[in-house]
Structure formats: structure tokens, C-alpha cells
Amino acid sequence: MFVPFRALMQQHWKAIVVLIPFLWLLVFFLTPFFIVVKISVAESLIASPPFSRLLDWSNGWPPTIAINLENYAYLWEDSLYIKTYLSSLKIASISTLLCLLIGYPMAYAIVRTPGTGKFVLLLLVMLPFWTSFLLRVYAWMGLLADQGTINDILIWLGLVDKPVRLLYSHFAVYVGIVYTYLPFMILPLYAIMERLDHSLNEAAADLGAKPVSAFFTVTLPLTMPGILAGCLLVFIPATGEFVIPDLLGGGNVLMIGKILSSEFNANHDWPVASAVAVALLLVLMVPMLFYHRIQSMDVNR
Amino acid sequence: MTEQPFIKVRGLTRTFGNFTAVDNIDLDINRGELFVLLGGSGCGKTTLLRMLAGFETPDAGSIEIDGADMAQTPPYSRPVNMMFQSYALFPHMSVEKNVAYGLKRDGVDRAQIKLRVGEMLQMVEMQDFAKRKPHQLSGGQRQRVALARSLIKKPKVLLLDEPLGALDKRLREQTQFELMELQDKLGTTFVVVTHDQEEAMTLATRIAVMEGGRFMQIGTPAEVYETPATKFVANFVGSVNMIDGVVTSCQPGLVDVKTKQGAVTLQAQSRDEHAVGSEVSIAVRPEKIIIQKTRPETEPETPNVLHGTVKELAYLGRLSTLRVETDAGFIVEVTSPNTTRHSDGKHPFEWDDEVYISFPAASAVVLIA
Ligand SMILES: Nc1ncnc2c1ncn2[C@@H]1O[C@H](COP(=O)(O)OP(=O)(O)OP(=O)(O)O)[C@@H](O)[C@H]1O
Ligand SMILES: [Mg+2]
Q: What is the CA(B231)–ligand 1 centre distance, in A?
């Protein structure tokens, strides 16, 4: 039966509207992901490309499927990888917490700023995006180095007499991550606080809640979706962060992004690098699923 | 012994930039009163209420509640609760939790909270909805929850900002009576804001009519309606005929006024002295005017009898409104009750009927401003 296009659109427009981005994701996320998974179960070879094929056609039909789980076993056995995952998660968690502690009051202050001041402040939060991320990390190197701006000032003030080690430390990595990802915390918090009805706080005060109590019983629970979204937006990319630990952390800071890069570039071990990436994705699924659970709980309530 | 007013406001002023929202207001409200603030949009009602609750800091003046000065008292320690115009229910809490909120903040023990919340929900007939969230309630139900929440702490004063604004007419009228009953039962002092004059008349023990941040008149509903102090009050509270003229004589209690249009003499009662020659208006409510087809049988020189023609007619069911153009030239609005049924579809008065209208001097008031 012939179904006219108009009628099809009218009946299924919702499905169609959803389908287009879905297909996009399918093609441009799932395809490379499957390639990575495929490489992760291959064997490392000195060849081009440097890994064995999934389907071996050398014996004709049917092809033999070669799945090699060695790479995953290797991740499990070599304590370096587990240590690095844990270190990445720790650094990402602490950075996320720091972003929340700094970002929450900032978002609150921006929302409560009257008039055009609000938009100026919001613009300032987004301003760093207008220059290259790499450039900004290099700028931090200049600030934190032994002969860098901060040490120069400290010495000039007479607070220290020889440079303090700032660069190539955990401290530098935290500074870098918090600095880079703070806007991702502030923006969702701003969005939700902007919609917050101020009369709810007045109602709380009217019913006897002191400001602190009103914050914990009204403002905090109502901004929780923004907190969760912001934390996720910081935590997930921070866990896999490569540039910041590489440039600011030097050899002292273990992060999985660095391992991945060195497996891939220095060791030319694509299969292990791919296994590292897949394992990272699995690790990051945990907070994602957790977030999803909380959200669907919220909808059901 | 005269009792001290329960709420005592003196010289209260609040400005926003160079705009004065509340302008040097004095106000006394007695214990147990149902006091209504009546006024048009933007006249400063909410601002005044918010100053009583402590959300707005006065630029000048003082507020005393039950003998205690409120200047240094933050909202969370005032013996006052407010029912917000938007209800401001906490969206993340159930009905039960919303109502319990005030008691919890005071550290009342759990069993006691459960008991009192139960009683309160019973009182506003919301006991079956205790577990629902505000977004699962109708407008009228939300309003009840807001009321319950603001009453749970047994405040000395309850401030209500347009409490019935979101309800349809029927529910509104029903709720007005419930509100009065509740107030009677609890004996709490209520201060209610509204811009609906009928609602104000129904609820109030006393009304303050507000305009431009000031009080135009404070009085019982009957006082405000029958003897309005200014033209604004007369117009705002009910409809009124306002006839401009000049005072020709002023005997004690009676004022003769020659109308500007048509130069007929009208007589009105007045407690005040009015200088001969001063410009005044005579205000008569439409329902106080008698309309007849024949000249009323009074002595010929009786004032306030006017001949005219029916120019407009509106049948409103309970009564009809007629606009009569007098021979003097001005138009007078008259309402006439439809006491008998005219099954033939005819009304006692029709367009272009010649009629006599009259009103006793006691039904009219003289207004200057
Ligand atoms: N925060 C504010 N900043 C500036 N102007 C304000 C502020 N709050 C109120 N106003 C002004 O003060 C005046 C009185 O406002 P208010 O809210 O008290 O009016 P209202 O009598 O409650 O009116 P409505 O019946 O429309 O609620 C208005 O003209 C309003 O624009
Ligand atoms: Mg208002």
C-alpha cells in the first residue's frame, strides 16, 4: 500500500525526528567504537596495520575468527594499569568535587547578579573557550614553572627564597583540570538556578528556616539535577584526560589517558591501547548508569 | 480600657529607585480582625504585605506586632506566616512534607508533627492527598495546601496575598466563606490582599482602600461603600454616579449643589462644612435611585427628582441596568431589581421611555477630591 509522505510525517514525525540524530550517533560513534573493540581483541604484529585481523580468510571459506583476550588479561595482571585507573578515578573525583565547591557559589552569585552584570559574568565564564585549549594549558606551564610567573612573584615578595615545585606535580594537574572543566560545572548549575523560584526560599524563611537550613532543605535538593549533570560533565572527560596530566603532571602523575597514548604512540601496541580504551569506557559506564537511574527515579516520583 | 492595636504601623515607606511603592502609611489592626487591603494593580499591596512578613526592608517607619518592634526581626523569627500569591509550595516535597515544614524547622518532635499535620490536612479536607506532590494537584487543592502550610505554626498573624486569585468564580465564593469560618474558629488575625472589591466586602471586618501607595480610606465594608471618603474610593468600591456641581447653600447636614450641566439643584447629606461656591461632586449609587414612569407624588419643590429618557438598557437577570439621559443633559445610571417575571418578554422600561428618577438626599454623598 502506498502511504503518502505527508501522512507518514504526520503520524510518525516524533519517531523521525528522533531517528535522524540516532542514526548519526550509530554511524559516527558505534562504528569507530566497534573498530576499537575489534582491535582490542587482536594480536599485536609488526606490520601495517600493526594488528592481526579478526577474520582470517587464509584457509578459504569459512573464515576463522581469531579472538584474543590476552590484552584484557594483561591489563588485569600488570598492576600498573589497575593502579592507573584508580589514580585517574581519584584525580577525576577530587577535581569534580573541587569544581562543585568552586562552581556552585559562582553559579549562585551569577544568578543573583542584577541586570547586565549577569551576562557579563556568564560571558567571562565562557570566554576561555574562545582560545585554544592547548594554548591555555601551555600558559599554565608558563605560570607554574620554576622560573614561571607565580614563583617570580613569590620570590619577589620574599615569601620563599628558591622556586617552589609547582609544575609537574599532582597540584598542577588539579589546577589544570579544575581550571579547564569549571565552566562545564557552572553552566548546568546556572541553568537550573536561573529557573529556581525565589519565593520558595522566602516561603522557607517565612516558615522559620534560617538561611543555612533553607539552603539544605530547598535550594540544594532543587538544584540536584544541575549538580549531577555538572559532575558528570566534569568527571567523565577528566578521567580520560591526556593533555593536562601529560603537560602539567610530567612523569609524576599516573593517568590512563597518558598510558593509552604511550601504548599507542611509543609502544605501537594498538591492541593493548584499544583494550585500555574499552576498559575505560566500561569504567565510565558506571557513573553514567547511576545518573540515568537517578533521573528516571526523579521522573517517576 | 482601650486595647492596644495588635499590628501597629507608623510612617511606613518603601521606595524602589525614585518610585515610591508604599508612601508613609499608618495602620492599626486589632487582634482577631480579618483586615483586607483593597486596591488596583501596582498600588503597593504586596509590598506592604512583604514588609509585614520581613521580606522587604522599609526605607522609613516602624512595624510593631503584638507590642514588639519588628525592625531587627528577620522573617524566620517573626510571629507571622504568609500565604503566597503563587502559593510557593515546595515542588520536591509531598503535601504532607510541605505542611510539616514549619514544625520541623522548630524542632517539634515527630509524633507531634504527624498529629498536627494530620489534623491540619483534615481541616482543609486534603487528608486523602497527603502523599501527592504539588504538581499532581488542582489549583484549588494547591491553595488548600498553601493555606494549611501557613497555618500549621499557629501564627499570630496570617498574611494572605490574593489567596483566591487562581480560583474560578464558584470555587472562589465557596472558599471565601470557608476562609471566614476558619478565621472565626482559629481567632488568628488575617491580613488579606485583594483587588476584587466584592471579595473584600464579603471577607472583611475592615477594609483599607489603597491607591498609589497610600490609604484612601479605612473602614468597615458598609462605611466604605455607603460613605466613601474620596471619588477614587466611591468609584473603586462598586459603581457610582458622579455629578459635578457648585455648592449653593450649606445648612447643617444638608448641602445644595447646582449641577455644572443643566444647572439643576440637587441636595445631599454631608457631615462636613462646604463653602458656598466650592466645587464638589455628588455621588449616588445606581441602586439607590428610584425610577418611575410617572412623577413621584411629593411636594413639587422636593429636590432630586429628574425627568429623562432611557438611552441604554442591560438585562442582567437579577436586575437591569438603565442609563437615563436627564433633561439637564447628564447621564445617570440606575439599577432596578427584576422583582416580577415578564413572561411576554417585555420589560417595565424600554428604550426611549420617558421616566422620572429620584433619590433621597440621605442616599447621596458630597465628595471634594
Ligand atoms: N523589586 C521591585 N523593584 C522595583 N519596583 C518594584 C519592585 N517591587 C514592586 N515594585 C513596584 O512597586 C509597585 C507596587 O508593587 P506591588 O507588588 O506592591 O503592587 P500590588 O499592589 O501588589 O499589585 P498587584 O495587584 O498587581 O499584585 C509597582 O508599581 C511595582 O512595579
Ligand atoms: Mg501583588
A: 23
